[in-house]
Amino acid sequence: MMITARLNDYRQSPRKVRLVANLVKGKKIEDVRNTLAFLIKRASKPLADLIDSAVANASNNFNISADQLYIKEFRIDQGQVLKRRMPRARGMAYPINKRTSHIFLQLDTIDNMPAKKGKKSKKAEVKKEEVKPVEKKAKKVKAKAEVKK
User: Fold this and answer.
1) What integer best gives the mean pLDDT of the chain?
2) pLDDT given at position 116
3) Most buried in the list 113, 124, 141, 144, measured by CB within 10 Å?
4) Which carries the bigger pLDDT value, residue 112 or residue 9?
């Protein structure tokens, strides 16, 4: 069951909005709300409002509470670009692009949340890497000794 919400023509560059969106992708709603509450980025307030709207959609349309939801997809696309001019020296005009963003949010239930992959321990990898170069050096030394004889 997909719960979606959209925010079109948000007046901030998609590049700046993606910084905030990438922080909260794949997290549970309660963690996302805490993260956005303390984040010092302009995009955090509209994204928090969009998440609240999607949670309201879930509770109203599907009777799903916020603790059972996580962010499945958070897509930030480029909207229309407002082209303006800034007067410069000697009668010249320089272009200014005022970019907008289209934001698409998709929530899903925690039951459908993909499992996290386990990480390999770094100690095991380091031990394997250390053994191989030592063996190669020993072989090179033996080969050089045979050549000298």
Assistant:
1) 87
2) 76
3) 113
4) 9
Strand pairing class (69-87; 93-109): antiparallel
CATH number of the structural domain spanning residue 17: 3.90.470.10
Return all residues near 120 (Cβ < 8 A) that are at least 6 apart: none
The mean pLDDT of 4-27, rounded to a whole number, is 96
As given in the structure block, the two tokens for residue 147 are 């050549």
Number of Cβ atoms within 10 Å of the Cβ of 99 = 17
Within a domain: 145: no
User: The domain containing residue 101 runs over which residues?
Assistant: 3-114
Structural domain contains residue 7: yes
* Cβ neighbours, 10 Å, residue 94: 10
What is the count of structural domains for the chain? 1
Tell me the β-bridge partners of 81. Answer: 99
Cα separations in angstroms, 106 against 125, 127, 128:
38, 43, 42
Q: Is residue 45 in some structural domain?
A: yes
Burial 36-75 (b: 16+ CB within 10 A, else e): beebeeebbebbbebbeebbebbeeeeebebeebbbbebe
pTM: predicted TM-score of the whole model, two decimal places: 0.74
Whether 125 is in a domain gets the answer no
